[in-house]
Amino acid sequence: MKTSSLSHSLDQVLGPLQDSMSPEFKRTLAQYRVNAKFQKQLDRLAKKNTEGKLTPEEKREYRNHLSALKVITILRVQARRQLTELVQA
Known about the structure:
The protein is an all-alpha fold. The protein has four helices and no strands.
């Protein structure tokens, strides 16, 4: 329920912001992928988390990474939705 609440809040806050973005930026955002260094770090932390071996500092880092990814994911979904609406209009 916490994730749904966060997602809903972010959607409400970020939605109006995306309305002002150009179609070109929305396409870039819709196709965005994190860089290899970030992904490698995330994978390492995820593995340690699964194994129950994260230090308190790594737990904070992992949570921060996941929070940032939630924001990006919501922006990407909104961008894709708006681009689809543009094509169908």
